[in-house]
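Whiteboard transcription, Tuesday session. T.W. wrote the C-alpha cells on the left side:
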C-alpha cells in the first residue's frame, strides 16, 4: 500500500505544472512566446523596453550543480530566472545572475 501511495504522489506532482530550473531547459531561442509561456506560465514581473519584453520568474527551484558557489541563490537552490522576447520570439533566457551566452542587445537594454 505504501508503494502505491508513493507512486501516486510522484505521478501527481510531476503533472502539477510546477516550474523549476529544469523547465527552462525546454526553452530555446526562436521559440514563440505563446509556446514558452505554456511551459512557464505567467511571470511575476514583466518589463517592456526598446521593443523587448523581460519576463522574470522569481524563486524558482533549480539544481545548484549548474552554478556551484553562487551567492545570489538561496541554500535551497532557488534562483530568479528570466526570458526575453522580441517580436513574440525568445531572444535569451536563463538565470538572472548566470548568463552563459549573453545577447549583446539584451545586455544593452536590461543588464
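and on the right, the sequence the group agreed on:
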Amino acid at each position: 500500500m505504501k508503494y502505491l501511495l508513493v507512486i501516486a504522489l510522484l505521478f501527481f506532482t510531476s503533472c502539477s505544472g510546477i516550474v523549476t530550473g529544469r523547465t527552462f531547459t525546454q526553452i530555446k531561442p526562436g521559440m514563440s512566446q505563446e509556446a514558452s509561456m505554456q511551459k512557464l506560465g505567467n511571470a511575476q514581473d514583466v518589463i517592456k523596453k526598446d521593443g523587448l519584453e523581460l519576463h522574470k520568474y522569481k524563486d524558482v527551484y533549480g539544481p545548484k550543480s549548474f552554478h556551484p558557489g553562487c551567492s545570489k541563490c538561496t541554500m535551497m537552490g532557488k534562483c530568479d530566472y528570466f526570458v526575453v522576447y522580441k517580436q513574440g520570439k525568445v531572444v535569451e533566457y536563463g538565470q538572472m545572475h548566470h548568463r552563459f551566452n549573453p545577447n549583446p542587445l539584451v545586455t544593452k537594454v536590461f543588464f
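Someone added at the bottom: DSSP finds four helices and four strands in the chain.
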